[in-house]
Amino acid sequence: MPLIDGEFISLVRAKQIPGKKRDYSSLATWESDRQGDVGDLTASGFLEVAEVEGPGSVGTVVIAGWTTDATSYILVRAAQGHEATHKYRTNKAFIQASAADGIRVSAQQFTRIEGMTIRQTGTFEAISMENANGYRVQKNFCWGGLGIFIEGRDSGGANQSITHSNIIIGAGNGGTRAAINTATALNAAHIHRVYNNTVISGNDCIKKTDSNNTQSRNNYFHPNSGVGGIVYDESTEMFAGNQHDITANIESLVGNKFRHLAFDNPKFFNDPHNKDFGIKEFANPFRGSGQNMNVPPASF
C-alpha cells in the first residue's frame, strides 16, 4: 500500500494471482480496514485510493464514517488496463451486486468513482451517492438495477456534483426509478451536472426530484419503447418529479439526444447483441453525444 504523489493506494483484486501482490480481496474489507487505520483524511492530507483490478467481483461496499474535504477525499478507481469501456466485460474492475447497492457512499464529501463495471441484478442502485456534495461519478459501465443515484444535501456547500461519460444499460426495469436520479441540493449554488452519458433505460432515463439544480448536456437517452408509460419530452416529462419548472431548476438541456428505439437496435451502436454500446460515429443525429471514455466534457 504505497503512498505515491499524495495518494495512499490499496490494490483490490478478488482473485489471487501467483507472484502478484494484492492488499485486499474485497472493497468492503478495504473500506473497513482503512477507515479503522485513518478515518480522518483531512488530518492526513492525502487521497485514499482503492485501485481495483479484475478478474472477479470485488463485492459491494458502503463507504461511510470518514472525514473528507475537497483535497483529501476517497477515490475508487479501476487500475490501468482494467477500466470500463463501451463494451460490457466482467474481467475488468468489476462488481456483481444483487441484494444491495453496488457502491453506496453516504455523507462523504467529494468522493469519486471512476472506471468501474457494475452488474446489478436486484432492485438497487449500481452506484448511490447520498447526503453530501462534490461527488464525481465518471466512466463507469452500469448494467441493470436502478442505475445511478446522486443526492446533494450539504446546506453549507456550493460544490458541483458531476455524473459524466457513464454507460447505463437496462436500468429502471422492475422499479420506478430512472437510470440517473438527481435529488435534493439544499444550497441553491449546488449544481448536479449530468454530461456525456449513454443511457438505455427500462424506465425514465433521467429524473430530477425536489427543487435541485440539474444541468443536463450532451447525453444520449435511449428509452426502451417496449416498456409502457415512458414519455420523453424535453420540456416537462423528461424531468418528472416534484418540480417541473425547467427555467428555474434545469439550467440547460443543450445537446441532449432522445430516441425511441428497440433496446438492441444495431443502427446506432457498434454491436449491441455482444454488449458493445459504443455509438457509431456515423449515427446521425447522435454523433457527438453520449459517453466518450477518453475525453471529459469540454467544461463544467
Task: Write a brief caption for the model.
With 300 residues, the protein is mostly beta strands. The protein has helices at residues 27-37, 41-44, 246-249; strands spanning 3-4, 7-13, 47-53, 61-64, 74-78, 94-97, 103-106, 112-114, 117-120, 127-132, 136-138, 141-143, 148-152, 161-164, 167-171, 180-183, 191-195, 198-201, 206-208, 213-217, 220-223, 250-252, 257-258, 269-271, 276-279.
What do these coordinates show?
By secondary structure, the protein is mostly beta strands. It has one domain. Helix content is 6%, strand content 34%. It is built from three helices and 25 strands. The chain has helices spanning 27-37, 41-44, 246-249, and strands at 3-4, 7-13, 47-53, 61-64, 74-78, 94-97, 103-106, 112-114, 117-120, 127-132, 136-138, 141-143, 148-152, 161-164, 167-171, 180-183, 191-195, 198-201, 206-208, 213-217, 220-223, 250-252, 257-258, 269-271, 276-279. The strands form four sheets. A ten-stranded mixed beta sheet has the order 1-2-3-5-8-11-14-17-20-22. Strands 6-9-12-15-18-21-23 form a seven-stranded parallel beta sheet, with no helix packed on it. The longest helix is centred in the first third of the chain and has 11 residues, at 27-37. The two termini are 33 Å apart. 47% of the residues are buried. Mean pLDDT is 76; it is low at 225-252 and 293-300.
